[in-house]
Design goal:
The chain is of the alpha+beta class and 296 residues long. It has two domains: 46-125; 132-294, Immunoglobulin-like (Sandwich). The protein contains five helices and nine strands. The chain has helices at 21-30, 46-62, 68-86, 94-125, 185-191, and strands at residues 132-134, 167-169, 173-181, 202-213, 227-231, 237-238, 261-271, 279-283, 291-294. The strands form two sheets. The chain has a five-stranded antiparallel beta sheet with strand order 1-2-3-4-7, with helices on one face. It has a four-stranded antiparallel beta sheet with strand order 6-5-8-9, with no helix packed on it.
């Protein structure tokens, strides 16, 4: 009679219901893990979108002097909406942050434009009233002589401009329009490789002028305090900075001290058909009275 063998600690037999270690490893390696649930997408932050649109519109209007008040209304609204949108739970913050930055920058731009408009209005309304002009005759037109003591009267308006070569003098500056070159397109374009040709129906003209600082500022002043604009025959103002141009022999921007002078050119893009019919609006200093000089 034989004694049945029972599996001991060292036996290699395995129970049908208990797989061997090798089988368990194989089954674990081939087992497919359940798919991970997709991360839910955050819903659109409607309030942030409204704030962004409002801020963009406010920024645009803040840059427009004629519509500045609209920008002042929209920008604070955009600022408040953007702040509220940042505290909404489970909402994306990107548009809210952009709207917040845009509303702040737009407010700064609006302040700059506002003071620029106010300064321009104050300059036009409160001219110094002491501008003196003498028409060229004999030694007139040179920068080493003073202007006549009598203030500018009716002459010097758009309708009756002063002639080229007149000496225009304020408390701080003496200005002389030396010459005007019409049809100066070739000279202007050739002056710099980045100068673009004028638009169809327009041409470049050059005004050569001299400035002398006669004020008492110990730190001196730059010729940029003197402004020259071109006014078309139909009354539109053209500034030299309306188009980026590097003039041939431009006037220096370095500070001048009492008695020092500078001479140079300034270019304008004007309508070709009426180029000679326009006038130059000359302001001898920031608060000097505007005086008109003929273009020919």
């Amino acid at each position: 009679m034989t004694t049945p063998e029972f599996p001991g600690a060292g036996s290699q037999q395995t129970s049908p219901n208990h797989p061997s270690p090798a089988q368990a490893d194989h089954e674990a390696s081939t087992q497919t893990l359940p798919p991970q649930p997709a991360k839910p997408k955050k819903p659109l932050n409607i309030l942030g979108l409204i704030a962004l649109i409002t801020a963009a519109l406010g920024f645009i209007f803040a840059c427009m002097p004629g519509a500045l008040i609209v920008g002042w209304i929209l920008l604070p609204i955009a600022f408040i909406l953007s702040l509220v949108s940042l505290f909404l739970k489970d909402k994306p913050k990107g548009m809210g942050v952009t709207a917040l930055i845009l509303s702040i920058v737009g407010t700064i731009v609006g302040v700059v434009v506002f003071f620029s408009v106010v300064g321009s209005a104050a300059s036009n309304a409160f001219g110094s009233g002491d501008t003196k002009v003498v028409a060229p005759s004999g030694e007139a037109g040179k920068t080493d002589g003073g202007a006549a003591a009598a203030p500018a009267g009716k002459t010097g308006t758009r309708e009756t401009p002063y002639p080229i070569g007149s000496v225009i003098e304020s408390k701080d500056w003496r200005v002389v329009v030396n010459s005007v070159t019409l049809a100066a397109t070739d000279a202007v374009v050739a002056a710099n490789q980045f100068n673009k040709p004028p638009a169809a129906g327009s041409e470049y003209i050059l005004v050569n002028y001299s400035v002398t600082y006669i004020g008492d500022d110990a730190n001196g002043q730059t010729p940029s305090f003197v402004s020259i604009e071109y006014v078309t025959a139909d009354g539109r103002t053209v500034n030299s900075y309306d188009k980026s141009i590097v003039e041939p022999d431009p006037i220096s921007s370095n500070a001048l001290y009492k008695g020092a002078s500078a001479t140079g050119n300034q270019a304008f893009e004007v309508p070709s058909a009426t180029a000679s019919q326009g006038v130059f609006a000359v302001r001898p200093g920031m608060f000097g009275d505007k005086v008109f000089v003929a273009a020919k």
